């Protein structure tokens, strides 16, 4: 990204970024070119299929890194609480009386029952949580505030424990939770922070959520968000009609990245002076390592939406994507709500029936591939190469 004055308002920064990205997209589209890495990369198919490799990923990526549990408006008010269970352990994420977001193990300190049951990332108004088993009650600061029959527990150091805290941070509209260890969010986000902060995610209002299951390794499914090389062949009836295939503008930010895919109409703008180009909204696929995609898009100029995809594996060959759509700046009126919901439905349909079905077929085939079989990631699949290198780096296991 060209340098954008950090003193500008988020909106002015988005406008500047949108102009700069549009210029690059028009040039790429007209030349039928894409951003590339230095060359192709062959990787063993076992990176997707090996259970030991998966166990290491689960530990290092899904337990010991900050993960997106939701956006601020998912739990907007003090007393709001939601579940974050997708990464493994059941975790409560709540906004306490003081407005602070905190997270705890969803684990009663009496005999380990779950205090809250329900759907992932769905807001419940519960300023106090009463255990369904024997009614110990905790507030959203994690304090044990009521303990029926407390005489039975007196005199033991573990007879009266608060909830077990989990590292959590609310940052520019994103709620991060890290199941184990101390969170170092600044180092994790590094120079992706200014890009995320200009999205104003704190003002994004949730409109619809659901999930999509895929019987494939989580990285194989995630890879479908990382290249536009498959648009014409896999999506001939939707994005393959509107967008150029194998043309993308790519920016790396540490382990994270942003990609934008030009529409076919953009190729025609090259013959016009840029002052005559129609206005273009800021947009793109924002990948937040290791498992989150924030897609900012627009239906038509001025009508933008935010789609949040969080991919969580349950084992080496299965994952669930927690999918939610948000209205930037809030829902304006009923028509806006319906449009945003429709965007959710259409996207879910395409992802489930095209991207994830393809991932399932390919993954099943890789399980039966001959020993030593490599998949090859082209220089045009730069995001996929980087994902593999970055995971190898975090795991401390070399790729080659
Ligand atoms: S397990 Fe929660 S009160 Fe007994
Ligand atoms: Fe796709």
Q: What would you say this structure looks like, in words?
A:
This protein has 400 residues and is an alpha+beta fold. The chain contains 11 helices and 19 strands. The protein folds into 2 domains: 10-63 and 191-395, Naphthalene 1,2-dioxygenase Alpha Subunit, Chain A, domain 1 (Alpha-Beta Complex); 67-183, Rieske Iron-sulfur Protein (3-layer Sandwich), CATH 2.102.10. Strands 2-11-10-5-4-3-6 form a 7-stranded antiparallel beta sheet, with no helix packed on it. Strands 12-18-17-16-15-14-13 form a 7-stranded antiparallel beta sheet, sandwiched between helices. The chain binds FE2/S2 (inorganic) cluster and fe (ii) ion. Residues 224, 230, 234-235, 355 line the site of fe (ii) ion. FE2/S2 (inorganic) cluster binds at residues 108, 110-111, 113, 131, 133-136.
Q: What ligands can be seen in this structure?
A: FE2/S2 (inorganic) cluster, fe (ii) ion
Q: What profile does the largest beta sheet have?
A: 7 strands, antiparallel
Give the strand line-up of the largest sheet: 2-11-10-5-4-3-6
- What's the rounded overall pLDDT mean? 96
How many alpha or pi helices? 11
Low-confidence stretches: none
Architecture (CATH level 2) name of the largest domain: Alpha-Beta Complex
